[in-house]
Design goal:
37% helix; Rossmann fold; 279 residues; globular; 16% strand; seven-stranded mixed β-sheet; alpha/beta
């Protein structure tokens, strides 16, 4: 993946993407909490794909933004389709592309889904579902894009984190009230934040089975409650050791102090679906 040189003539969306690339990929120390969280989340997702999706598999990266998942997966030999509502970002990602097979399909995934029924071995939705007014419909849409036995890799902020004050989707009487503000990027675009229980419920409603749900990152790693002031002075090894230690805590504690939830959801294979019909 090519590192770009900043150009003041870029459109604003490219400039914003470059700022986050510096934090997330190229080692800027401007906001270490953001950098550490992104590094952990990105590492988990790419490793999970490598473990579960054979090289050469067909992958859709929904709302792929700067391409920081699409591009390394293409370099690993996957056939990747990049998607985002912001069509102008395709040009930014193309400039970063060095090797591997990647196609660009900008647009609303709800509108594009009819092009790809049962097409993908894997779909990535990294920090997307919390920006959608109808997360149940979103998961159903993505399920239709998967081949039988295909997997959805999902990352989202943990709705049980003690600093989370967003509503639960299951408690919202009329989600359509949020349709006019959905799809906004960054944290100010969050609508609903899911927890493990709600993730399981939405997955079941979409016909997906849970292969794995995990929690990661803590207030120190994220730089929250003023702990961010410590991060510039702590070696990365210390921050990593603390993160590893908190992942070994009892689940009820982890649910309160973990900022991120990650999940692998699987679409039943054809044989499994047939067995369900017989039952």
């Amino acid at each position: 993946m090519r590192r770009l040189t900043y150009d003041d003539s870029w459109p604003d969306s490219w400039k914003s993407s470059y700022y986050y690339d510096e934090l997330e990929i190229w080692g800027s120390r401007h906001d270490l909490g953001h950098s550490y969280q992104y590094r952990d989340r990105r590492g988990w997702l790419i490793n999970a794909v490598k473990e579960l999706v054979p090289s050469g598999g067909c992958i859709l990266d929904v709302a792929g933004a700067s391409g920081n998942f699409s591009l390394p997966l293409a370099e690993l030999g996957y056939r990747v389709t990049w998607n985002d509502l912001r069509s102008e970002l395709a040009g930014y990602v193309k400039q970063k592309h060095e090797s591997g097979e990647i196609e660009f399909s900008p647009g609303n995934i709800f509108d594009l889904a009819g092009q790809w029924p049962g097409h993908f071995d894997a779909v990535l939705a990294a920090e997307v579902i919390e920006h959608v007014a109808h997360p149940d419909q979103f998961l159903t849409c993505l399920t239709k894009l998967l081949k039988p036995g295909g997997r959805l890799f999902l990352t989202t902020p943990n709705g049980r984190y003690f600093r989370c004050h967003h509503p639960r989707f299951s408690e919202c009487a009329d989600p359509s009230a949020f349709e006019s503000t959905q799809f906004k990027p960054d944290a100010d675009g969050h609508i609903f934040l899911l927890d493990r229980e709600e993730c399981r419920s939405l997955a079941a409603g979409a016909g997906l089975t849970i292969e794995r749900i995990d929690l990661m990152n803590n207030p120190l790693t994220a730089g929250h409650v003023k702990l961010g002031y410590l991060l510039p002075y702590l070696p990365a090894s210390i921050v990593g050791a603390f993160e590893k230690g908190t992942r070994g805590l009892p689940q009820f504690l982890r649910e309160r102090i973990s900022t991120q939830m990650v999940a692998i959801l699987r679409k039943p294979g054809a044989a499994e679906s047939s067995q369900e019909e017989v039952r």
